[in-house]
Amino acid sequence: MRAIRIVLGLVGAATIGGGGLLLLSTQRPDQLLGFVLWLIGAILVHDGILAPIVLGVGLLLRRAGRRIPWAILGMVQAALIVGAVLTLVVAPEIYAQSRSPGNPTVLVGDYAARLVGLWAVLGVLVTVAAAGYLLRRRRRRPEGAPA
Amino acid sequence: MRRLLLDLRRAVASPARNPRKAVVIGRLLGSAFVLCFLTGLVSHYLQHPEPWMAWTPRPEWGYQLNQGVHVTTGLLCIPLLLAKLWVVYPDLFRLPLIGGLGSVLERGSIAIFVGSTLVQLAIGVLNTYQFLPLPFYFLQVHFALSFVILGSLALHIAVKLPIISRYWRRPADGDEGALEVPEQVPEPAIAAPPGRGVTGRAMAFIDATPAPPAKVSRRGLLAGVGLSAAALLMLTVGQTLTPLDPLNLFAPRKKGTGPQGLLVNRTSAQAGVADAATDAAWALTVTNGERTIALTRAQLLALPQIDAALPIACVEGWSQTATWRGVRLRELVGLVDADPGAELEIRSLERKGAYKTTRMAAEYVRDDETMVALAVNGEPLHLEHGYPARILAPGRPGVLQTKWLDTIEVRA
């Protein structure tokens, strides 16, 4: 394992170096600076904005665990993840569309309305699934038993 | 500082944030990176071949498949990457924050890995929107970053190999491990008086929050990743995979859009060719050394015509098949006695642009269906599709299907 690790590590480091040289040789200094700013910005946006938001929403969900069954919270969480990932991809698309691209065959959809529709569908799916879960659970337990 | 880091680690602790999950998500993400890298290389070298490289025009859907896979796996990397970062997020607050050269190197290499991947995915997606407000060149940076990322992946695997091999299979005892906890640190360290200061209050809130059953937390993670990846795939891949076209809600391209029901990559306005292309004096110049002929559109139409159903497959991941009609290229250059093994230099009327001039290797020139197209789907070519004449060859990237032809030169 030691030999594999050393070889893999060296090959990896060399490949990173090669990629770095490619960057240095194809970009002007001001472009390199712009690139480094994007690199740092990307990490800051993830670690400093996205991750804490996810953490906060996760805490609120857990907090609700006192009153709401965990299974239902799991469904809500899954729906939130699907909606958030699609929103992350589609939001820049909506913005790009608002800048009226020069090509009338690109970004032709009504993405904003569809995104709202997606969230609505997710809401309906979660509601139906949660209702089904509660009904099944009530049938399984005798009347008056603690939930 | 130490106290804050410990608090942060405690705040983000979760049963699903464990080495086994890091390995499960990590190998999916790693595979996606490799697939994306390889398809990216194919696309790059199809467009910028080295002299020793040889490509084949068949299967004619080869590039369509390659780019469909490239763009789709790139998109799927987004939920996978976010999940991977979520799982290892507590490691960001590891103690000591920075200690010694080894730790600086490790944190530095991870920062480069994560930063490069985030930028790579972001600019890749923006490019499919044809929206690039970047302070650098997209193409070269996207290409260079792919090597930085693949190298970082190899280095990362080298560093983490013991953990990867330990948690590759589901541990028999069900113990999925815990993210590294610094030694000599009792958790929680010193009990802080509750409710004092912002941190104190936040930690009190977090400590009072019930923890979900480990099973729910772990399954929830995998379900969230799986469902969001599936949704992303199903709702966008229709831009290249025809059976899923009805589900294509979010892809930047929709099959059937544009003049003659066909998508356009670069418009005549963007290329600045409208005047030259509609000039009544237009003629296609075909040259082989001393021999030169000029053919008007009427003369081209008078030559024997062939029909072929071929896809336009764009580097951005969309594709659309149409029925093209025109003059077989091999026969056209035969009029100037071109050698069957010769390659061509094809020039467009465009004044500028990276693809104004393209080279076509002999394999493509020889193919029976490679043509100078004059009509599509039964109608004369629309200006946006390359009127008066364009190149169409099987298996080539869309940007090399030169529109608004000016000259074709046989190279010795």
Textual characterization of the structure:
The complex is a heterodimer of chains A (147) and B (412). By secondary structure, chain A is mainly α. Chain A is 81% helix and 0% strand. Chain B folds into two domains: 2-243, no CATH class; 260-411, Alpha-Beta Complex (Sulfite Oxidase, Chain A, domain 2), CATH 3.90.420. Chain B contains twelve helices and ten strands. Chains A and B meet through helix 1, helix 2, helix 3 and helix 4 of A and helix 3, helix 4, helix 5 and helix 7 of B.
Q: What labels describe this entry?
A:
heterodimer; A: about 150 residues; mainly alpha; about 0% strand; B: about 400 residues; Sulfite Oxidase, Chain A, domain 2; 5-stranded mixed beta sheet
Helical fraction of chain B equals 40-55%
Largest interface: A-B, 79 and 84 residues
Subunit organisation of the chains: heterodimer
The count of helical stretches of chain B stands at 12
Shape of chain A, please? extended
H-E order of chain B = HHHHHHHHHEEHEEHEEHEEEE
> Strand-residue fraction of chain A?
under 5%
Distance between the first and last residues' Cα of chain B:
70 Å
The rough form of chain B would be described as elongated
How many alpha or pi helices of chain A? 4
Q: Report the helical percentage of chain A.
A: over 70%
Q: How many separate domains of chain A?
A: 2
SS strand fraction of chain B: 5-15%
| Count of domains of chain B | 2
Task: Compute the CA-based radius of gyration of chain B.
Answer: 28 Å
Order of helices and strands of chain A: HHHH
Through-space gap between termini of chain A? 52 Å
Across the major sheet of chain B, the strand order is 2-1-10-5-6
